[in-house]
Amino acid sequence: MTSLPLVFEAPQRAMPPRHLADLDPTERRAVAGELGLPAFRIDQLARHYFGRFIADVEAMTDVPAAGRERLRVLLPTLVTPVTVQTADRGATRKTLWRGLDGTLTESVLMGYPDRATVCISSQAGCGMACPFCATGQGGLKRNLSTAEIVDQVRQAAAAARDGALGEPTRLSNVVFMGMGEPLANYKRVVAAVRRIIDPSPNGLGISARGVTVSTVGLVPGIERLAAEGLPVTLAVSLHTPDDELRDTLVPVNNRWKVEEVLAAAHRYARTTGRRVSIEYALIRDVNDQPWRAELLGTLLRRHIGARLVHVNLIPLNPTPGSEWDASPRPVQDEFVARVRAAGVACTVRDTRGREIDAACGQLAASPPVSA
């Protein structure tokens, strides 16, 4: 089996133009001076963007026309939708976005009886080279800017509010489980998290408890995130408890082994008080053996603690032409039972959008198709 080299640094490409969502409150005040506007005009702009999800300055009628013209530079259109596909009777909406430089990214908006969740991308492509993931096999194109990340959430919030999922609802959950390794784009992802959770006019006001940041196990990034003081959920894409197989399934394991990753996850849980989620894509005849379930439960209980961890089992969403397939239901049920028998909570993720390649954890780098 061949695999692509790991890429921790994104290729050097020009980032998109400066956007309001790239700026923290201090930077906004400085920009107000640059534009020759009082600071409260930037606050007005921010209230429209973050509080009302408006990105068209012409719709901001409480701002004088001259002010709107000056503020326009802070709301460049960074991404445009190429296609929108729906599944699950309209409860799942996958959007393919094109950036200003032509790079493609994806997000998926999902409605549930008790919540609305958006799965967002943090990079165009991914450099982690996991062989069962179409995005990973496509390689890394570039990091997304803070604003490109935030705008996926803003547009999802607007769509949910406007009834895109059926009944109008409020976006309550954001998961960084789309294209890319979030901790490989660390500074921009953390800045985006702050914009997502800060109240208006500084952010979208989504509860930090509704935000999940995933990683394949970049231990230094986990340590840095624990020190940020952001009570978001950490999700570790483990996929197997043994180093021998994980070296192949998740090549970053060649740098940071399972026990190192679990130790970092334990420190994260202790520091933040947030239970860690262990993501485990169940692959037929690869990582679905009962002994692996038992080892997984044992290691999690030993290194993190049963009260501080939860296993989120993901039935694999096969991609066209892939050698990988989902485990049969009886095998899945046995795996869950073995993990629970070890004293660790384990549930099976609801697989959404299989027919549009949008099942969470397997967001694929699909080519654009005509709308």
TrEMBL record:
GO terms for cellular component: cytoplasm. Pfam families: Radical_SAM. [4Fe-4S] cluster binds at C126, C130, C133. Its EC number is 2.1.1.192. Coiled coil: none annotated. It catalyses: adenosine(37) in tRNA + 2 reduced [2Fe-2S]-[ferredoxin] + 2 S-adenosyl-L-methionine = 2-methyladenosine(37) in tRNA + 5'-deoxyadenosine + L-methionine + 2 oxidized [2Fe-2S]-[ferredoxin] + S-adenosyl-L-homocysteine; adenosine(2503) in 23S rRNA + 2 reduced [2Fe-2S]-[ferredoxin] + 2 S-adenosyl-L-methionine = 2-methyladenosine(2503) in 23S rRNA + 5'-deoxyadenosine + L-methionine + 2 oxidized [2Fe-2S]-[ferredoxin] + S-adenosyl-L-homocysteine. PROSITE patterns: RADICAL_SAM (PS51918). S-adenosyl-L-methionine binds at G180, E181, S214, S237, L238, H239, N317. SUPFAM superfamilies: Radical SAM enzymes. InterPro entries: Aldolase_TIM (IPR013785), Methyltransferase_A (IPR040072), RNA_MTrfase_RlmN (IPR027492), rRNA_lsu_MTrfase_RlmN/Cfr (IPR004383), rSAM (IPR007197), rSAM_sf (IPR058240). Keywords: 4Fe-4S, Cytoplasm, Disulfide bond, Iron, Iron-sulfur, Metal-binding, Methyltransferase, rRNA processing, S-adenosyl-L-methionine, Transferase, tRNA processing. The active site is at E106 (proton acceptor), C360 (s-methylcysteine intermediate). Binds 1 [4Fe-4S] cluster. The cluster is coordinated with 3 cysteines and an exchangeable S-adenosyl-L-methionine. Its main location: cytoplasm. One of its GO terms (biological process) is tRNA methylation. Reaction proceeds by a ping-pong mechanism involving intermediate methylation of a conserved cysteine residue. This is Probable dual-specificity RNA methyltransferase RlmN.
